[in-house]
Design brief:
Strand order of the largest sheet: 1-2
Strand content: under 5%
Number of strands: 2
Helix content: 55-70%
Distance between the termini: 42 Å
Structural class: mainly alpha
Shape: globular
Length: 203
């Protein structure tokens, strides 16, 4: 099993370098760390009293890993979840904040667990997810990954500007979909034909 540090390092590699996409609500971002996060944490890396795009550009991979471990894993108490879920939920928390936990909670409710959907990992969610992981933890991991993929599709269904994250310019799976499927068994990956059928209504 990967360590939290290794998972965070993989996330940083997956996120890539500096980007400032006007269609991305995260605004200026580097290694997955947004300018909003840096302002919330007071990371003035230039020392000029302001946190701007220049501070984002100065962020190092090591700093990004430390931010993710401290504020996106330890802070939301993801260690309370079954180990098999932690890489995917952690990756999704970096991408979508507390929505990562809500996706899990909605999934658990569909499995008839009586839990509150509040985006917070507490004893209730931890117990339900550990019970759901028995006797087949991989099945729960796959179910979460598919739910995560469906979440991305729903965003793209409702927001035209976000479709470029789910489908490439050449019409293939975009970064969001590939990212979700990294945590899903190959048998649950969408085929090219299935993907094209799912996004056909976007044209």
């Amino acid at each position: 099993m990967q360590t939290v540090q290794e998972i965070a390092t993989d996330i940083v590699s997956r996120e890539g370098g500096f980007v400032d996409d006007p269609d991305d609500p995260g605004a200026a971002t580097k290694y997955g760390v947004t300018i909003h996060t840096m302002r919330r944490l007071g990371l003035d890396l230039t020392g000029d009293g302001f946190i701007t795009r220049q501070d984002v550009k100065r962020l190092s991979k090591t700093q990004a890993v430390d931010i993710f471990v401290s504020h996106y894993f330890k802070g939301p108490r993801l260690s309370m979840l079954p180990e098999v879920l932690q890489p995917s939920v952690f990756d999704m928390y970096v991408n979508a904040g507390a929505q990562a936990v809500k996706i899990l909670q909605y999934l658990l409710r569909k499995m008839d667990f009586k839990i509150t959907v509040d985006g917070v990992v507490g004893p209730q969610t931890a117990k339900a997810s550990k019970t759901a992981a028995l006797p087949d933890p991989i099945a729960l991991r796959d179910a979460y990954g598919v739910a995560r993929r469906n979440y991305y599709f729903r965003i793209a269904d409702g927001r035209v500007a976000s479709r470029k994250y789910a489908r490439t310019q050449t019409g293939h799976k975009g970064g969001w979909i590939r990212r979700a499927e990294e945590f899903v068994s190959p048998g649950y990956h969408l085929s090219d034909a299935e993907f094209q059928q799912r996004v056909a209504g976007w044209d």
